[in-house]
Amino acid sequence: MPLRNWIESANNAIEGILHAVKTQRHVRYHFFSAALVLIFSYSLGVTRLEFISLSICAMLVILAELFNTVVENIVDRLSPERSDFARIVKDMAAGAVLISAAGAVLVGYVILFPYLKRLFSEELFIPRHSKEEIAVISIVIVLILVIILKAYTGKGTPLRGGFPSGHAAVAFSIWLSITLTVKNLLASLLTFVLAVAISQSRVAVHAHTPKEVIAGAALGTAITGLLFLIFS
Q1: Which of 88, 100, 105, 152 could serve as a FRET partner for 30 with CA atoms 20 to 30 Å apart?
Q2: How confident is the model at residue 1 (pLDDT cuts 50, 70, 90)?
Q3: Does the pTM of the predicted model rise above 0.85?
Q4: What is the mean pLDDT of residues 185-214?
């Protein structure tokens, strides 16, 4: 029961994120921006600490925008008519987003400017990263894309149903990461079988259609393979 309750709570929380992405264009912009910044900074070869700092800034901006959305919805429900109080509350919530975004821009400028300067003054090169790092960033990017795609299709809940299957996407992303990192046939086969079993289980419990599972598997494999091809 505790595990089932936790899964249900996680499902509700992610459903809230998907609803915000689907209905609020600014939330969509922030998710797109976060994905682009992470990929771009990774392409420039930032250090681990710098990448973590940029990731935290991106998360804080998204968090502030989600809280701003919550405040706006509550105010609209409690005070549907125009009032100075409602306007001030909304402005303060929007101010929190502005502060977080300004801070993210400042941190991004301080971190990325030297890399951008080097990019324009030296020959173009693609930095190499450890396979462990690529595996982690692959899962992050895959999850962001799954959230965006599910929000746009508007079907199912995040942990049950919807296009594409997030379980299949993550499972096959992990499979390919292990295959390319460990380079052990037995490990690759075992994780592949596990990924297939996870995907099949989503169809068996009628959480996804075969098309949604195949799309998720293709997404996870393609994104992970592309990142390994570019950065390893």
Answers
A1: 88
A2: low
A3: no
A4: 89
Q: Of 50, 65, 72, 133, which is the active-site residue?
A: 65
Give the domain-ending residue among 70, 99, 127.
127
Annotation says 65 is catalytic: yes
Residues 15 and 116 in one domain: yes
CB 152 within 8 A of CB 42: no
Tokens found for residue 104: 């993210």
d(CA 227, CA 232): 8
**Parent domain of 167:** 128-232
pLDDT confidence of residue 154: 63
Average pLDDT over residues 70-77: 89
Q: Residue 160 — φ and ψ, nearest 5°?
A: -150, 105
| Crossing angle (nearest 10°) for helices 25-44 and 131-153 | 160
DSSP letter for each residue of 174-187: HHHHHHHHH--HHH
Could you tell me how many helices (H) and strands (E) the chain has, helices first? 8, 0
Query: 182: Cβ–Cβ under 8 A, 6 or more apart, which residues?
Result: 188
**pLDDT of 126 above 80:** no
Residue 107: closest CA among 182, 176, 49: 49
Are 8 and 120 found together in one domain? yes
Cβ atoms of 225 and 176 closer than 8 Å = yes
